[in-house]
Amino acid sequence: MMIKRNLLLFFRDKAAVFFSLLAVLIILGLYVLFLGNTMEEALRLQLGFDSDKIPATMASIIFAGLIATTSITSSMGALGIAVTDKEKAGKDFQTSPTSSGKITLSYMLSSAFIGVIMTTVALVFCTAYIVFKGNSLPGFTDCLLLFLTTLLSVLCGNGVVFLITTFIKSSGAFTAMSTVIGTLIGFLMGVYIPIGTLPEGVQWVIKCFPMSHAASMYKQILADGALSELFADAPVEALDGFREMFGVVFVYGGFVSGFWFSATVLVVTTLVVYGLSLGLIAFLPSQ
Hints:
Layout: H1 2-12, H2 14-20, H3 22-47, H4 54-88, H5 90-94, H6 100-132, H7 140-165, H8 171-188, H9 200-208, H10 210-230, H11 236-245, E1 251-252, E2 255-256, H12 259-283
Helix pairs in contact: 1-6, 2-4, 3-4, 4-6, 4-7, 4-8, 4-10, 6-7, 7-10, 7-12, 10-12
Protein backbone atom coordinates (compact mmCIF):
# COMPACT_ATOMS: atom_id res chain seq x y z
CA MET A 1 0.00 0.00 0.00
CA MET A 2 2.87 2.38 0.74
CA ILE A 3 4.41 1.67 -2.66
CA LYS A 4 1.06 2.26 -4.37
CA ARG A 5 0.64 5.50 -2.40
CA ASN A 6 4.09 6.77 -3.43
CA LEU A 7 3.49 5.92 -7.09
CA LEU A 8 0.15 7.71 -7.12
CA LEU A 9 1.58 10.76 -5.36
CA PHE A 10 4.37 11.03 -7.92
CA PHE A 11 2.36 10.57 -11.12
CA ARG A 12 -0.52 12.75 -9.93
CA ASP A 13 1.89 15.61 -9.35
CA LYS A 14 2.54 16.82 -12.89
CA ALA A 15 5.10 19.35 -11.65
CA ALA A 16 7.11 16.58 -9.95
CA VAL A 17 7.12 14.51 -13.14
CA PHE A 18 8.14 17.54 -15.20
CA PHE A 19 10.98 18.62 -12.93
CA SER A 20 12.28 15.05 -12.63
CA LEU A 21 12.75 15.19 -16.41
CA LEU A 22 13.92 18.81 -16.56
CA ALA A 23 17.61 17.96 -17.03
CA VAL A 24 16.67 15.53 -19.79
CA LEU A 25 14.48 18.12 -21.52
CA ILE A 26 17.31 20.67 -21.34
CA ILE A 27 19.73 18.22 -22.95
CA LEU A 28 17.17 17.37 -25.62
CA GLY A 29 16.55 21.06 -26.35
CA LEU A 30 20.27 21.81 -26.57
CA TYR A 31 20.79 18.90 -28.95
CA VAL A 32 17.95 19.88 -31.27
CA LEU A 33 18.85 23.60 -31.29
CA PHE A 34 22.60 23.52 -31.80
CA LEU A 35 24.53 20.80 -29.95
CA GLY A 36 23.81 18.10 -32.52
CA ASN A 37 24.87 20.17 -35.55
CA THR A 38 27.94 21.49 -33.74
CA MET A 39 29.19 18.03 -32.76
CA GLU A 40 28.42 16.57 -36.19
CA GLU A 41 30.40 19.35 -37.90
CA ALA A 42 33.30 18.86 -35.48
CA LEU A 43 33.35 15.14 -36.31
CA ARG A 44 33.37 15.87 -40.06
CA LEU A 45 36.38 18.15 -39.60
CA GLN A 46 38.13 15.54 -37.46
CA LEU A 47 37.53 12.76 -39.98
CA GLY A 48 38.22 14.87 -43.04
CA PHE A 49 35.24 13.44 -44.92
CA ASP A 50 31.45 13.37 -44.76
CA SER A 51 29.32 10.30 -44.15
CA ASP A 52 25.63 9.59 -43.73
CA LYS A 53 26.56 7.70 -40.54
CA ILE A 54 27.75 10.85 -38.75
CA PRO A 55 24.27 12.02 -37.64
CA ALA A 56 23.40 8.52 -36.39
CA THR A 57 26.72 8.21 -34.55
CA MET A 58 26.44 11.52 -32.73
CA ALA A 59 22.75 11.00 -31.94
CA SER A 60 23.55 7.57 -30.49
CA ILE A 61 26.29 8.94 -28.24
CA ILE A 62 24.36 11.96 -26.99
CA PHE A 63 21.07 10.16 -26.47
CA ALA A 64 22.81 7.30 -24.68
CA GLY A 65 23.98 9.85 -22.13
CA LEU A 66 20.46 11.28 -22.00
CA ILE A 67 18.98 7.86 -21.16
CA ALA A 68 21.52 7.35 -18.37
CA THR A 69 20.68 10.83 -17.08
CA THR A 70 16.99 9.88 -16.88
CA SER A 71 17.78 6.94 -14.59
CA ILE A 72 19.12 9.41 -12.01
CA THR A 73 16.79 12.39 -12.38
CA SER A 74 13.57 10.33 -12.41
CA SER A 75 14.57 8.44 -9.25
CA MET A 76 15.59 11.73 -7.66
CA GLY A 77 12.19 13.22 -8.38
CA ALA A 78 10.47 10.18 -6.89
CA LEU A 79 12.53 10.38 -3.70
CA GLY A 80 11.24 13.90 -3.15
CA ILE A 81 8.18 12.18 -1.64
CA ALA A 82 10.37 10.67 1.08
CA VAL A 83 11.81 14.07 1.96
CA THR A 84 8.35 15.68 2.05
CA ASP A 85 7.07 12.91 4.31
CA LYS A 86 10.07 13.28 6.59
CA GLU A 87 9.48 17.01 6.83
CA LYS A 88 5.68 17.07 7.22
CA ALA A 89 4.53 13.63 8.34
CA GLY A 90 7.54 12.07 10.03
CA LYS A 91 5.96 11.84 13.49
CA ASP A 92 2.72 10.47 12.05
CA PHE A 93 4.59 7.62 10.37
CA GLN A 94 6.59 6.92 13.54
CA THR A 95 3.38 6.39 15.52
CA SER A 96 1.71 4.27 12.82
CA PRO A 97 1.61 0.45 13.09
CA THR A 98 3.76 0.18 9.96
CA SER A 99 7.43 -0.42 10.81
CA SER A 100 10.04 2.12 9.77
CA GLY A 101 11.81 -0.62 7.81
CA LYS A 102 8.75 -1.21 5.63
CA ILE A 103 8.30 2.52 5.10
CA THR A 104 11.95 2.89 4.05
CA LEU A 105 11.68 -0.13 1.75
CA SER A 106 8.57 1.37 0.15
CA TYR A 107 10.50 4.53 -0.75
CA MET A 108 13.33 2.47 -2.22
CA LEU A 109 11.07 0.25 -4.31
CA SER A 110 8.64 2.93 -5.47
CA SER A 111 11.46 5.25 -6.59
CA ALA A 112 13.10 2.31 -8.38
CA PHE A 113 9.80 1.45 -10.13
CA ILE A 114 9.36 5.06 -11.19
CA GLY A 115 12.95 5.17 -12.41
CA VAL A 116 12.49 2.03 -14.52
CA ILE A 117 9.22 3.34 -16.01
CA MET A 118 10.58 6.79 -16.88
CA THR A 119 13.93 5.47 -18.15
CA THR A 120 12.19 2.87 -20.33
CA VAL A 121 10.03 5.61 -21.86
CA ALA A 122 13.16 7.68 -22.54
CA LEU A 123 14.91 4.60 -23.96
CA VAL A 124 12.10 3.85 -26.42
CA PHE A 125 11.85 7.48 -27.53
CA CYS A 126 15.61 7.93 -27.90
CA THR A 127 16.07 4.63 -29.74
CA ALA A 128 13.31 5.57 -32.18
CA TYR A 129 14.98 8.93 -32.81
CA ILE A 130 18.39 7.28 -33.32
CA VAL A 131 16.88 4.87 -35.84
CA PHE A 132 15.24 7.84 -37.57
CA LYS A 133 18.68 9.49 -37.84
CA GLY A 134 20.00 6.45 -39.70
CA ASN A 135 21.09 3.90 -37.11
CA SER A 136 19.99 0.28 -37.36
CA LEU A 137 17.22 -1.08 -35.16
CA PRO A 138 18.62 -2.93 -32.10
CA GLY A 139 18.47 -6.71 -32.41
CA PHE A 140 17.12 -9.14 -29.82
CA THR A 141 20.44 -9.44 -27.99
CA ASP A 142 20.90 -5.67 -27.90
CA CYS A 143 17.36 -5.28 -26.52
CA LEU A 144 18.19 -7.68 -23.69
CA LEU A 145 21.40 -5.75 -22.96
CA LEU A 146 19.48 -2.46 -23.01
CA PHE A 147 16.97 -3.88 -20.51
CA LEU A 148 19.80 -5.11 -18.26
CA THR A 149 21.53 -1.73 -18.50
CA THR A 150 18.31 0.06 -17.62
CA LEU A 151 17.81 -2.06 -14.50
CA LEU A 152 21.41 -1.62 -13.35
CA SER A 153 21.53 2.11 -14.07
CA VAL A 154 18.23 2.77 -12.28
CA LEU A 155 19.15 0.68 -9.23
CA CYS A 156 22.57 2.31 -8.98
CA GLY A 157 21.32 5.85 -9.59
CA ASN A 158 18.43 5.35 -7.20
CA GLY A 159 20.79 4.00 -4.56
CA VAL A 160 23.22 6.91 -4.87
CA VAL A 161 20.44 9.50 -4.58
CA PHE A 162 18.77 7.57 -1.74
CA LEU A 163 22.04 7.61 0.21
CA ILE A 164 22.29 11.39 -0.20
CA THR A 165 18.63 11.77 0.73
CA THR A 166 19.18 10.13 4.13
CA PHE A 167 21.04 13.30 5.18
CA ILE A 168 18.35 15.69 3.90
CA LYS A 169 15.49 16.79 6.13
CA SER A 170 13.80 19.61 4.22
CA SER A 171 12.27 20.13 0.79
CA GLY A 172 14.41 23.24 0.31
CA ALA A 173 17.63 21.30 0.79
CA PHE A 174 16.35 18.57 -1.53
CA THR A 175 15.53 21.14 -4.22
CA ALA A 176 19.02 22.61 -3.92
CA MET A 177 20.56 19.14 -4.22
CA SER A 178 18.40 18.38 -7.27
CA THR A 179 19.49 21.62 -8.91
CA VAL A 180 23.17 20.86 -8.39
CA ILE A 181 22.87 17.30 -9.66
CA GLY A 182 20.73 18.37 -12.62
CA THR A 183 23.36 20.96 -13.57
CA LEU A 184 26.34 18.62 -13.33
CA ILE A 185 24.82 15.43 -14.71
CA GLY A 186 25.15 16.38 -18.37
CA PHE A 187 28.90 16.91 -17.98
CA LEU A 188 29.37 13.70 -15.97
CA MET A 189 27.59 11.72 -18.70
CA GLY A 190 29.71 13.31 -21.44
CA VAL A 191 26.70 14.88 -23.16
CA TYR A 192 27.66 18.55 -23.42
CA ILE A 193 31.38 18.15 -24.08
CA PRO A 194 33.40 15.11 -25.23
CA ILE A 195 35.08 13.62 -22.18
CA GLY A 196 38.46 13.49 -23.91
CA THR A 197 38.58 17.28 -24.32
CA LEU A 198 38.29 17.92 -20.57
CA PRO A 199 41.29 18.35 -18.24
CA GLU A 200 42.81 15.07 -17.11
CA GLY A 201 41.69 15.54 -13.51
CA VAL A 202 38.08 16.05 -14.59
CA GLN A 203 38.30 12.99 -16.83
CA TRP A 204 39.31 10.89 -13.85
CA VAL A 205 36.38 12.21 -11.83
CA ILE A 206 34.04 11.12 -14.63
CA LYS A 207 35.73 7.72 -14.96
CA CYS A 208 35.36 7.13 -11.22
CA PHE A 209 31.72 8.29 -11.10
CA PRO A 210 29.71 5.03 -11.20
CA MET A 211 26.79 6.35 -13.24
CA SER A 212 29.15 7.37 -16.04
CA HIS A 213 29.58 3.65 -16.62
CA ALA A 214 25.84 3.38 -17.29
CA ALA A 215 26.22 5.96 -20.06
CA SER A 216 29.22 4.00 -21.38
CA MET A 217 27.14 0.81 -21.52
CA TYR A 218 24.32 2.54 -23.41
CA LYS A 219 26.83 4.04 -25.84
CA GLN A 220 28.42 0.66 -26.53
CA ILE A 221 25.04 -0.89 -27.35
CA LEU A 222 23.58 1.99 -29.36
CA ALA A 223 26.62 3.56 -31.03
CA ASP A 224 29.16 0.80 -31.71
CA GLY A 225 27.36 -0.43 -34.84
CA ALA A 226 27.35 3.02 -36.43
CA LEU A 227 30.95 3.60 -35.31
CA SER A 228 32.14 0.38 -36.96
CA GLU A 229 30.58 1.45 -40.26
CA LEU A 230 31.84 5.03 -39.94
CA PHE A 231 35.44 3.94 -39.26
CA ALA A 232 35.38 0.91 -41.58
CA ASP A 233 38.16 2.32 -43.78
CA ALA A 234 40.08 4.06 -41.00
CA PRO A 235 42.91 2.63 -38.87
CA VAL A 236 41.90 0.78 -35.71
CA GLU A 237 43.69 3.45 -33.67
CA ALA A 238 41.29 6.09 -35.01
CA LEU A 239 38.25 4.13 -33.84
CA ASP A 240 39.82 3.43 -30.44
CA GLY A 241 40.70 7.09 -30.01
CA PHE A 242 37.17 8.20 -30.87
CA ARG A 243 35.59 5.71 -28.44
CA GLU A 244 37.84 6.98 -25.66
CA MET A 245 37.27 10.64 -26.58
CA PHE A 246 33.46 10.36 -26.34
CA GLY A 247 33.30 8.07 -23.32
CA VAL A 248 32.16 4.95 -25.13
CA VAL A 249 34.89 3.24 -23.13
CA PHE A 250 37.12 4.43 -20.30
CA VAL A 251 40.86 3.88 -20.26
CA TYR A 252 42.66 3.39 -16.94
CA GLY A 253 46.34 3.31 -17.76
CA GLY A 254 46.57 0.34 -20.10
CA PHE A 255 43.19 -1.13 -19.16
CA VAL A 256 40.14 -0.43 -21.36
CA SER A 257 36.74 -0.81 -19.73
CA GLY A 258 34.21 -3.05 -21.44
CA PHE A 259 30.49 -3.60 -21.08
CA TRP A 260 30.74 -6.23 -18.35
CA PHE A 261 33.36 -4.29 -16.41
CA SER A 262 31.01 -1.30 -16.29
CA ALA A 263 28.13 -3.60 -15.31
CA THR A 264 30.23 -4.91 -12.42
CA VAL A 265 30.96 -1.33 -11.30
CA LEU A 266 27.22 -0.62 -11.20
CA VAL A 267 26.41 -3.82 -9.29
CA VAL A 268 29.13 -3.24 -6.68
CA THR A 269 28.17 0.42 -6.27
CA THR A 270 24.50 -0.51 -5.88
CA LEU A 271 25.27 -3.00 -3.09
CA VAL A 272 27.54 -0.52 -1.32
CA VAL A 273 25.20 2.48 -1.42
CA TYR A 274 22.12 0.53 -0.37
CA GLY A 275 24.12 -1.09 2.42
CA LEU A 276 25.35 2.30 3.64
CA SER A 277 21.84 3.75 3.43
CA LEU A 278 20.30 0.95 5.48
CA GLY A 279 23.14 1.19 7.99
CA LEU A 280 22.61 4.91 8.42
CA ILE A 281 18.87 4.48 8.85
CA ALA A 282 19.38 1.70 11.40
CA PHE A 283 21.97 3.53 13.52
CA LEU A 284 20.70 7.06 12.94
CA PRO A 285 16.89 6.70 13.04
CA SER A 286 16.49 10.44 13.48
CA GLN A 287 17.81 10.90 9.94
